[in-house]
Structure formats: structure tokens, C-alpha cells
């Protein structure tokens, strides 16, 4: 039975949200039009505030309706059918919400609502012009989910469209117009990870936060307040830098945990589209700091703050227009929104450029001459390096856009993305890291003191000498281990060490002076550590799963796969680097049971999400399920248990890399498991397994007629027939009152342990049935074929198959914890800077220096800045 009410309510709420955003934008504009900052028309202000509150309530209504559709499994709606399924846990249903384009737009809109409500209370005299921009952006964003068709014009894509309207060509609608699927297609397998529950909201909050400084910058240009906007914009920019940066690293860690390309950053265009605006955002923070401290770089600050938001819009266009369809593995497909996205981007780009050009000469500048001994120079150079790095990534990532545009105007383009994108980007971005590390150390040391040749030499000597000594020691160690260091690696190593030591030196100096700690110093230490972590883990990863057997695993594999993977037969010990490794079987995830459960302990049923326990499922002394109990399983993922033992220290650990068969996504999807040590990670993932979805190739059945107590030899193993007993319900037989079932009881001795095997012989409805039992560890299957009660003889069949195996890749990633710990320090530094500014209020208006005037020199003295 179709339920169209919730969809109708949701769609009407979208329309209401769009109309209310339009009214709010116009009302706030009229309230501020032709008036000085802080002087507003009370009537228009009241209408603007009311309209934005209505918009906020309507957005919340849309969210409730869409999540209600997903959570209620209302598969008559295309969004629920295409993104969710019956067996998803609640936290993955939350991920379903923003898996699709419409849901992710809605998430972005929601964060803008939250920020807009905060600004209505905190922006004070800036409220009208800032909220004009805010509501205007909401107008455009809400239009993306309107889903209104006017003739040939489509405005937005509605998340509330019915399946029959989205796919009208399906024949089922002819016979049953009210057909509702019993299940959905499910959440993308790669997104079924806890990071996907928290990463997208964090990232979209970072996107949303870039709108606030942009709105202040536009408001400053509009109202002729060319400097007062910088103070609130800096606070909001710090929040944006913190949250967007953390969101990016969350995505990197998700890739590290979930994908099997062997790292955390693949220079995919969608990754780049987020990285670019973050670099420019960080550069804008430094520009705003320069104005706050020395009345420098105000024009630069305007340009960078505006560019950050425009790059967010451009990133949205890249990832959602379909232009990257052949260049990125995780961009969205085109839903017909390309035109809207271009209009959205063009509107704010034209608005910004027109305002900047018309006000450019009125923006105050300083003629202060910067010398080598001015810290402002090195801050400015560092910001320039960040922008150059962003431009390099932007230029290459945009190649599909150039081709699409040239094709649109009838010009054939031969531009192509680099064949090896990782090498292409890394070659340039390594030098970006060198520049950032060097400038962060120099600027921080110089920021807190008066500088001349003597004082600067004294300050730089110790951290510079220690950095050179540390780099020399590392280079010797690398060469001692038979590896080389390229010039770019040496430069990055030296400057990153200098960045750490220089910033630590200044932090300790401030502590001695009893001055509040510098958030910038802590953040710079974190970024330098991140650079060291990237250099060590990516530049010197060590593949420990080298194929030393001389075997070619498969002609279908490329040469690298055959060389860099190890074949593990089940229960056989194999040498791999410094470890002895043993693959011990397949496991499944059973909700409510810690860890994973051996598949051999479970009888599978006709319902793929349910199984019967063959024996007690317990952890320690706690029994979670008794033999015969029905339990729920998550069957899509198989976990492969791999035991590691260090041959020297005898230390043991166990990993569970997972894999699943997903033909829609290219076959085998493998996710790694990682063992974390203090100075390195062991990163392991499955490269190949026997075909999971195909019947095993069993040998011809060999019959054995046995009496109780007989022993038979099965290849390299032997089995004792211990007796016959009534079959247990754990076999999933579903026996009726007059049915009969017995099972043989065998004890099979393998290499490492003994196995209880129970083949079943059943008579149901006067028909004979047999249920064989399999020992996956040994590749054996026993069938109960016949009973001769007069002679006390029992006939069993034995067949064999190729022993289970996996092909595994294992990589040692040295010092990768420097990357993650550096991220935490960077976030801490941003947080400290935000905390320092929590009580700063808008400074009273002070006449800014006119163009061409020379301000009084500022004597630096210790004070806490970011």
C-alpha cells in the first residue's frame, strides 16, 4: 500500500523552505538597503527574521520526513529504495540519509540553518547584510531539492519522488500501479563504516562555516566597512579551518580503514575538491591575522575569504554535475542539476567580483616596507605557498571541466589527466610541504620578538642545527637499511624537523615568559608532524608479503599482484617478512557478540540474515547463544582470520581483513585490517579468495561401509566413527512428528586440532534426504548415504576439494602515527586560537588608513595569537 502522505508533507516543506528563504533574503536586503551598518528598517528586519525561522522549521520538517521514509522502509519512494534496505542497523540508516545527492544537499542546508540562527543572535549590527547573503545562499541550495518541473525546465531533484515516477518504464506498473518492493538495494558497501556516520556531517559543517566569513566580507564591501568585518570573520574562519581540516582527515582515515589501495589519500578528484578550499581557507586565516596585527594584506584577505567560498561552490559543481564521472570513483552522477549548479556558482562569483572591483581602490592598504626580518613577510610567503599548492591541484583536477567546456563550444580537446596522478600531484605537493614547514617555523620564531640579524641568528641557530643533525641521522639510518632518499624527501624531512623544533622552541619560551600559549605554534607543530608522517608512511612503506615461492598465482593478475602478495593455505604456516602467518578460516559478524563468529559454528538457513548455532556461541564464560538457537548474522561481509607471530619476539596478534562479493562494484570488495604499533602499522588486506558465489568443485564420492568404532583414512587425515545418534534440531531440519533423522558422529584429526562432524540421514514424508557436513579447514565433506540395521553397518560418502586459501597483501607503514597525532595537535592549536578569541568583541570603528598612507609602526610584543 502506497503511503504518499509523508512524501507530500516533505515536498510541501521543501517548497515552503524555498519560499521562506526567498522572503528572508529580500526582507533582510530591504532592511539594510541604503542605510549605514547597524541602521536597519525595523519592519523589514522583523519580516526577515520571521521568514528565516519559518525556513528553519520547514527544513527540519523535510529532514524528519526523509528520515521517516528511510527508517520506515518505505520503498515506494526511490530514495529509500536506492539507498537503504531492511537489514541495515540504525546508524547506517543515518548514513543512507546523505548517501544521495538530495540528502547531502539537505545536510548542507541544515548546517546553514543552525549557523544562521546563531548569527541572528550574535551578529548584532551586521545581522541584516550578513543574513541577506546567508538567506540568498539558502535560496539557491533549497532550489536543488525542489523537484519541480515546468514544461522542459526541471528545478532541483526531489528526494520524495516515488519509485514508479522515477522509473516509469518498469513493466510492473502496468499490472500493479501500487507495487512496493519488499526490500531496497541497500547502502553502498564501502559506506558501511562508522566513519561514514560522522565524516560527512563534519565535512558539510566545514563547508557551511566557510559561508560565514564570506558573508561578512560581502557585507563589508556592501556597507563600506572595509576592516571591521575581519574580527568576526577571523573567529569563524578558525572554526571552519578546524572542522573542515578534521573532516578531511576523517575521510582519509576512512579510506585507510576501508579501501585497499594501500593508503589514506589517492589524489582522487573528489578528494582534491575538498583539499583545495581548505588550503585557501588556511591562507585566508593568515591574511586576516596580518591585518589584525599589522594592518597588512586586507585586500588579500578579501580575495582569499571570497575565493574559499567560491571554491566550495566549485567543488560542489565538480562532484555533483557528473563532469568527473570518468575521472573519479566516488563522484555523484548527474541528476540534471548541472545548469543550476553553474548558475549558483556564476551568481556568487559575479556578485563577488563586481563588489571587489567596484570597491577595490577604497580598501585600505599599507605601504609598510617588509624586509627579511619582518615576520609578516614570512606569514605572507607561507600563505602564498598554500595558494600555489591549491592552484596546482585545481588546475589538474579541472581538466575534465576544460574538456567539457571546449566540447560544448565545438572544440575538440586532447587534454587528459596524468596517467599516474599520485606521482604527478606528489611531485609538486612535496615542495608545498617544504615551503609550509619552513615558513611556519620562521614566522613563529620571529612573531614574538624584535628581529635583526643578531637576534634572528641567535634564535634560529639551535632549532636549525638540531634539524640538520636529526635529518642527517635519519638519512644515515635510511641508507643503512638499503633505501635511498631523493632530494625532495631530504628537503621535506629537514624543513619539517625544523618546523617542529622551531615551534616547540617558541612554545617553551612563551611558557617561561608565563605568556598564554600560541595556538598557532601548536597547530604548526601538528602540521609539521603530519608532513613527517606522510613522508615516512608513504615514501617508505615496506611490502612484507613478497611472493618468494616462485609461483605465478594467476595469469589474470598483473605482475605487481603476483609479486607483492602471499598465498596462505588454510591452517598452514607461511613465512612473511619477520612473521610466521597462518590463515585459520572464515568468520561472520553476529550483532551482539563481541568479535566475529567462525562460520563452521553456524548452519545457514534459507534466510541469508539468519543462522542456527551448531554449538554454544560464547566469549569467556558468557554464553550468547546456545546450540540450536537462531541468531542474526550480517552475511554481506566475510572476515578472514589471519594469525601473525613475530619469529624473534614470539609476539602474536590476529587480524580480520574482510571481503565481500559485489558484482555491481567490480567483484571482490576488500577492506584491510590494521595492527597499530607505536612506530608502525601492519596493514593487511585480501587480494583474492576462492570464488565465494560458486559451488565448490568436489571430487567423486568415495563410499565407506563402517561399523561403530571403525577408523578411516581421508587423504592426510584420519577419522573415527564413534556412533549414530538422533539428529539435533541444530541442523535446521524442521522435523515433523512422524519424521526420522539420525546423524553420524565422527571425530576427524587434522594437523592442529580435532573436528566433530555430523552428516545427517533423514526420512521426511517417506522421502530420504541427506545433509552432508563439511570440514572447511581440511577440504572434506562427509555424507550419510545408507543404513543396514540388520548388519549394524552404515554407509558414508567422502569427497574432497581444494583446500581453502586466501591471497594476502601486507604492508608495513612506518611512523604513520605521526600523521594522526599531528592531526590532533593541529586541531588542538585551532581550538586554542578559537578559545583565545571567545571573549573578543567587535572593536569600535576606527578610521582606517587611507590608500597610500603609512600607518605608525607596530612594536611586536608578547600576546597570544593563532
UniProtKB/TrEMBL annotation:
Residue span(s) of domain Cytochrome c assembly protein: 102-321
Where is the stretch described as Disordered? 843-866
Q: Which residues cross the membrane?
A: 12-31, 52-70, 90-118, 130-150, 203-222, 234-255, 275-291, 296-317, 337-357, 377-395, 428-448, 460-481, 487-510, 522-540, 815-835
Q: Pfam families, from UniProt?
A: Cytochrom_C_asm
Q: Name one GO molecular function term.
A: heme transmembrane transporter activity
Q: Which UniProt keywords apply?
A: Cytochrome c-type biogenesis, Membrane, Transmembrane, Transmembrane helix
Claim: tRNA-binding is one of the keywords in the record: no
Tree of life domain? Bacteria
Q: Name one GO cellular component term.
A: membrane
Q: Which terms under GO biological process does the entry name?
A: cytochrome complex assembly
Its family? Belongs to the CcmF/CycK/Ccl1/NrfE/CcsA family.
Q: What is the protein name for this chain?
A: Cytochrome c biogenesis protein CcsA
Amino acid at each position: 500500500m502506497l503511503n504518499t502522505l509523508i512524501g507530500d508533507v516533505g515536498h510541501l516543506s521543501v517548497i515552503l523552505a524555498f519560499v521562506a528563504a526567498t522572503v528572508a533574503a529580500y526582507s533582510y536586503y530591504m532592511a539594510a538597503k541604503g542605510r549605514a551598518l547597524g541602521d536597519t528598517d525595523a519592519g523589514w528586519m522583523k519580516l526577515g527574521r520571521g521568514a528565516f525561522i519559518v525556513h528553519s522549521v520547514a527544513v527540519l520538517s523535510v529532514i524528519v520526513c526523509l528520515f521517516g521514509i528511510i527508517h520506515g522502509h518505505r520503498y515506494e519512494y526511490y530514495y529509500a529504495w536506492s539507498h537503504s534496505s531492511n537489514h541495515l542497523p540504525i546508524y547506517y540508516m543515518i548514513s543512507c540519509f546523505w548517501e544521495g545527492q538530495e540528502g547531502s544537499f539537505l545536510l548542507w542546508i541544515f548546517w546553514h540553518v543552525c549557523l544562521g540562527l546563531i548569527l541572528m543572535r550574535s551578529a548584532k549590527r551586521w545581522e541584516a547584510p550578513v543574513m541577506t547573503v546567508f538567506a540568498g545562499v539558502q535560496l539557491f541550495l533549497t532550489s536543488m531539492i525542489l523537484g519541480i518541473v515546468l514544461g522542459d525546465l526541471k528545478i532541483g531533484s526531489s528526494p520524495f519522488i516515488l519509485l514508479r515516477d522515477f522509473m516509469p518504464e518498469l513493466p510492473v506498473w502496468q499490472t500493479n500501479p501500487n507495487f512496493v518492493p519488499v526490500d531496497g538495494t541497500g547502502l553502498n558497501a564501502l559506506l558501511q563504516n562508522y566513519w561514514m556516520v560522522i565524516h560527512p556531517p563534519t565535512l558539510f559543517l566545514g563547508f557551511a562555516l566557510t559561508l560565514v566569513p564570506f558573508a561578512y566580507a560581502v557585507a563589508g564591501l556592501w556597507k563600506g566597512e572595509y576592516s571591521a568585518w575581519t574580527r568576526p570573520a577571523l573567529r569563524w574562519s578558525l572554526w571552519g579551518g578546524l572542522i573542515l581540516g578534521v573532516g578531511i582527515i576523517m575521510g582519509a582515515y576512512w579510506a585507510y580503514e576501508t579501501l585497499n589501495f594501500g593508503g589514506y589519500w589517492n589524489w582522487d578528484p573528489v578528494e582534491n575538491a575538498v583539499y583545495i578550499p581548505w588550503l585557501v581557507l588556511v591562507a585566508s586565516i593568515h591574511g586576516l591575522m596580518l591585518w589584525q596585527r599589522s594592518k597588512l594584506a586586507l585586500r588579500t584577505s578579501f580575495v582569499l575569504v571570497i575565493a574559499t567560498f567560491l571554491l566550495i561552490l566549485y567543488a560542489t559543481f565538480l562532484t555533483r554535475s557528473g563532469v568527473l564521472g570518468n575521472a573519479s570513483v566516488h563522484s555523484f552522477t548527474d541528476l540534471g542539476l548541472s545548469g543550476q549548479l553553474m548558475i549558483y556558482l556564476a551568481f556568487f562569483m559575479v556578485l563577488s567580483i563586481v563588489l571587489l572591483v567596484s570597491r577595490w581602490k577604497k580598501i585600505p592598504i599599507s605601504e609598510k616596507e617588509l624586509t627579511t626580518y619582518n615576520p609578516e613577510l614570512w606569514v605572507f610567503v607561507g600563505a602564498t605557498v598554500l595558494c600555489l599548492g591549491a592552484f596546482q591541484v585545481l588546475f589538474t583536477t579541472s581538466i575534465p571541466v576544460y574538456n567539457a567546456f571546449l566540447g560544448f563550444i565545438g572544440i575538440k580537446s586532447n587534454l587528459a589527466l596524468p596517467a599516474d596522478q599520485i606521482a604527478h600531484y606528489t611531485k609538486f605537493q612535496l615542495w608545498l610541504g617544504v615551503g609550509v614547514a619552513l615558513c611556519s617555523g620562521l614566522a613563529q620564531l620571529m612573531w614574538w620578538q624584535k628581529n635583526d640579524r643578531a637576534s634572528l641568528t641567535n634564535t634560529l641557530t639551535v632549532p636549525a642545527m638540531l634539524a640538520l643533525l636529526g635529518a642527517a641521522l635519519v638519512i644515515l639510518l635510511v641508507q643503512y637499511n638499503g633505501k635511498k632518499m631523493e632530494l625532495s624527501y631530504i628537503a621535506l624531512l629537514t624543513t619539517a624537523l625544523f618546523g617542529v623544533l622551531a615551534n616547540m622552541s617558541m612554545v617553551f619560551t612563551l611558557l617561561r615568559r608565563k605568556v598564554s600559549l600560541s595556538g598557532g605554534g601548536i597547530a604548526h607543530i601538528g602540521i609539521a608532524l603530519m608532513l613527517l608522517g606522510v613522508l615516512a608512511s608513504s615514501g617508505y612503506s615496506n611490502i612484507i608479503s613478497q611472493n618468494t615461492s616462485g609461483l605465478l598465482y594467476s595469469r589474470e593478475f598483473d605482475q605487481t599482484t603476483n609479486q607483492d602478495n602471499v598465498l596462505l593455505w588454510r591452517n598452514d604456516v607461511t613465512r612473511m617478512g619477520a612473521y610466521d602467518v597462518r590463515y585459520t578460516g572464515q568468520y561472520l559478524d553476529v550483532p551482539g557478540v563481541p568479535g566475529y563468529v567462525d562460520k563452521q559454528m553456524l548452519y545457514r538457513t534459507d534466510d541469508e540474515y539468519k543462522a542456527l548455532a551448531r554449538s554454544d556461541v560464547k566469549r569467556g564464560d558468557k554464553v550468547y547463544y546456545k546450540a540450536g538457537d537462531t541468531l542474526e548474522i550480517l552475511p554481506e561481509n566475510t572476515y578472514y582470520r589471519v594469525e601473525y607471530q613475530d619469529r624473534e619476539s614470539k609476539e602474536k596478534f590476529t587480524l580480520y581483513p574482510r571481503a565481500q562479493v559485489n558484482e555491481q562494484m567490480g567483484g571482490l570488495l576488500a577492506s584491510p585490517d590494521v595492527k597499530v604499533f607505536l612506530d608502525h602499522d601492519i596493514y593487511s588486506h585480501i587480494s583474492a579468495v576462492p570464488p565465494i558465489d560458486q559451488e565448490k568443485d568436489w571430487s567423486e564420492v568415495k563410499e565407506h561401509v563402517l561399523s561403530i568404532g571403525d577408523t578411516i583414512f581421508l587423504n592426510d587425515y584420519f577419522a573415527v566413527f564413534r556412533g549414530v545418534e538422533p539428529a539435533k534440531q541444530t541442523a535446521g531440519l524442521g522435523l515433523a512428528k512422524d519424521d526420522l533423522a539420525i546423524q553420524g558422529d565422527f571425530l576427524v584429526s587434522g594437523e592442529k586440532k580435532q573436528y566433530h562432524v555430523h552428516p545427517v540421514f533423514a526420512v521426511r514424508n517417506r522421502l530420504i534426504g541427506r545433509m552432508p557436513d563439511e570440514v572447511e579447514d581440511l577440504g572434506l565433506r562427509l555424507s550419510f548415504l545408507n543404513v543396514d540395521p540388520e548388519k549394524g553397518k552404515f554407509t558414508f560418502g567422502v569427497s574432497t576439494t581444494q583446500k581453502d586459501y586466501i591471497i594476502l597483501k601486507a604492508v608495513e607503514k612506518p611512523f604513520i602515527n605521526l600523521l594522526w597525532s599531528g592531526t590532533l595537535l593541529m586541531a588542538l592549536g585551532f581550538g586554542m586560537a578559537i578559545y583565545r578569541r571567545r571573549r573578543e568583541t567587535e572593536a569600535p570603528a576606527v578610521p582606517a588608513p587611507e590608500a597610500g598612507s603609512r600607518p605608525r609602526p607596530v612594536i611586536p610584543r608578547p600576546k597570544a595569537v593563532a
